[in-house]
Specification:
Blueprint (H helix, E strand, L loop, with lengths): L27 E3 L5 E3 H11 L4 E3 L6 E3 L12 H9 L19 E3 L4 E3 L1 H7 L10 E3 L29 E3 L4 E3 L1 H5 L7 E3 H20 L2 H33 L4 H52 L2 H21 L9 E5 L8 H5 L1 E5 L6 E10 L7 E8 L2 E6 L4 E6 L4 E6 L6 E4 L5 E5 L4 E6 L3 E7 L3 E7 L4 E7 L14 E6 L4 E5 L10 E6 L5 E5 L4 E5 L5 E5 L13 E6 L5 E5 L4 E5 L5 E6 L8 E6 L4 E6 L3 E9 L1
Antiparallel strand pairs: 1-2, 3-4, 5-6, 5-7, 8-9, 8-10, 11-12, 13-36, 14-15, 15-16, 16-17, 18-19, 19-20, 20-21, 22-23, 23-24, 24-25, 26-27, 27-28, 28-29, 30-31, 31-32, 32-33, 34-35, 35-36
Helix pairs in contact: 2-7, 5-7, 5-8, 6-7, 7-8
Length: 638
Amino acid sequence: MESREPSSLGPMIQPDACGICLGEYTRPKILPCFHTFCFKCLESYVDKTGRLGRFSCPLCLGDTLIPKGGVARFQTNFYVKADKLRSTYMPNVRCDVCERHDVADSRCLECDQNMCPNCCKTHLKMTASRDHHLIGLFVRDSTPNLRHRVLTRIYCDKHPGDELTFYCRKCDMTICLRCKVTSHENHVSDDLQEVARVTREHLNTKLEGAKLHLPLFHEQLNDANRYEENMVQTKDRLVKTINQRATKLHDKVDKLAATLIHDVDSEYNVETARIDSHRKKITQASKALAGQIHAANQAVMYGADAEIARNKDLLVQQMENITTTAERLQLPKLTLELSPSITLEGKIEESFGSLSTRRPPAVDIKIQEMAVFQVDDTFKVVSSICPVGDGEAWVTSGWKPEIHLFNVYGTRLRTQSVGRNIDSIIQDKSKSLIVTCSDQRQILRSHGNIDFSIIATLGQHPRGIALTEDNELLVCTGQSLAFQDYKDGHKNKVLRYSVDGRMTGEFGDEDQWKFMYPLRIAVNMTGDICIADCQRRCVTIHRRDGTLKAKYTGAETSGLKNSFEPRGLACDSRGFIFVTDNANDAIHLLDHSGKFIRLILTSNDEVYGPYATAIDSKGFLWVGARDATVKVFKVTYI
């Protein structure tokens, strides 16, 4: 698998660029986590992703409270502009305000005007500009300590006319002179300048410690790159060993060799996908750390005394959080080996050897509810969901002729009638929709503006449908329309079709494995075929040729109140399998081999009677349930 992430962190670390648009800041706003974004970029992002008055930082994913008044109420990051001016040599700059045009020694960051000392004093006394930020203009001389701190006056909320000049130790807050002699009269207070000086020294020590962790991110990224190279070598070595042993056996051994090579490829693809995701996580964490250090460093250098004193605990906490982040990003590694038998006697499988894996612990997954909405007012079950674009999906409920296009926030964008009752929907590589009409035993495909035509008429009832990487249709079929009507002797199976409706094969009616009622089907990133057999109450995983590879019965899951009842399933880009359990109001999370990881959603998440599910390329998990209800969750791999 070709890597999509850079092998070096250097080009990705751009502290002075907006983390959303990647361009220069426009009206920069700084979040409590010390990440900065353009005002318009952040406003648009919060409008799209904010929920219940909170949103996740685009860089570090930290949970952030939206202030009263919206994004505009976040603090403007004047430190960005101050940092640019600090490095600018501006000799003999004249005052833009007074008529004498005296030599300016400061510049107002809000007004973008240069000012002489007298105008600066007047500017900070005027009501309209008394809280503006002034930075000293740099003059090239022999003075070692050039003036570079941002000068601003912050006033008392209780006494708006008085500047904050003291720090109350007992109340842990900045106060003005009138507060000091009244409500804080018996409290120990310190001069604000001295408190800020001590705090700056403490924060500078924390910053220096945090900076030491940047090389660790570099090493972890290099480790991930080396691990990927090792996985390539391991894959090549195993394939070579398998092929060498395969030449000593006959036709059946050749088939077994191909199977094991596929398994190696599956493990390799899953692992390299994990490596790529881990690399992204390291890169994102490094960008987040660099941005936090840069912004915090600017705050320490240019922040007003009151700002430093007021935010000292937040700054200290952020620095302490930073130092622990890198230690959690070590990459667990898969051990992948072939375990051959000593002799070539006995069963072929024993003679050939099997692939042994010692997988690292599964990654943790964070899941956040984005929206909940009803498809219509029929209160019927949501039978199918088909993601088709960035945060959009076609949804159908109640086995009716209509399909509805929704975005992840529950806004209905479009409704289309297919003309027949719909059971399942998918989209092919040409962006055409393909639907199964189980009661009329037909498969339809859209043309142009969602005009549908029949591409196949079946002898059985088509249910779930999926598309392979080779553009082959896989269709679950049953002799009865409803799985509750299954009877012994029914030969339910999975049929293979070309996208133009030509049947090419089938599986599931062999001695090796017989389906009872295959209801829904999905193709994993490994090429394996995952099937929810609701009547047999299990999920089966098949190789591309249809042979059984693994099964999951729910017995591995502790705490289930009822028997496992799979209805729908979906596979993500990392090989994880999401299975809806209708009887237990739960979503089971399996790895690519069918091993249970955990219940990722339950009735505690207000998921009731889940039926359909789908996950799109952006990590949005759609869950359709009874009462025509759809819930959308954002899945994040931690």
